[in-house]
Amino acid sequence: MNQQVKKGRLFLIPTPLDFGCATEAPLADVLPLHTVQTASQITHWICENAKSCRAFLKRVDAVAPLALPLQQQNIAELPREAHKKGDHNPQTTSNSDSSALLAAALQGHDVGLVSEAGMPAIADPGSSVVRAAHDAGIDVVPLVGPTSLLLALAASGLNGQNFAFVGYVPSDATERSARLRELEQLALRQGQTQIFIETPYRNQALLGALLQTLQANTRLSISSGLTLESASTQSRLVKQWKPLNTSLDNRTPMVFAIGR
């Protein structure tokens, strides 16, 4: 009689928020030791980008030695469709691709899911893998680490009891202005804080659109460099932002929030 193989677990491993930034935060300052130690013992990985995954594992190894050398780690990337279109919609994401990535877990190995920054599957790809794990009876274990959206919300002074993350706003100027007005009406009418992000090189353009489009008494919060020594959150009314002629760093990821 064949004994059934005990399934491994899917660990959701947060990574530092300094991806793409000029400086890095010490790993011990932004990730609990338990998270780092757990990551060090995993040898099978599903990631957004193999290069950034290896860079993260190098940082882990400096704190807690890896169970296998970096060259022997099993690293698989999410499909390109997950980057371009997101993988939160079961109708547009291949279940077979996600299930295939979990083959090691079905064979008894723990598997780590990572994104390039923050918590995987939150404002990043990974939800299709989590769904596939649940469907396959694989335990999903989220670990503690920084999530930029919640850090920015907490520091904003905006409503933390009712909020929504809406992803990216359109890059087309006309569409962007229309979307910002729509989000502002939601924020003012329902008291629901609206949180969004942008590709860093568009930070300044987005700020300009916000100041041109939003009402004078709408509160705008901008967080940058979270968890770094250079971390900053500025939160003020639009009419208070306008005289400042603020210049944003177009290389640093930022989180924008509006509300009342």
UniProtKB/TrEMBL annotation:
Classification via CDD domains: RsmI_like
Domain Tetrapyrrole methylase: start-end pairs: 57-228
SUPFAM superfamilies: Tetrapyrrole methylase
UniProt-listed Pfam families: TP_methylase
Sorted UniProt keywords: Cytoplasm, Methyltransferase, rRNA processing, S-adenosyl-L-methionine, Transferase
Coiled coil: none
GO biological process, one term: methylation
Single Gene Ontology MF annotation: methyltransferase activity
The organism's place on the tree of life at top rank: Bacteria
PANTHER family according to UniProt: RIBOSOMAL RNA SMALL SUBUNIT METHYLTRANSFERASE I, SAM-DEPENDENT METHYLTRANSFERASE
The protein's name in its UniProt record: SAM-dependent methyltransferase
Species: Comamonas piscis
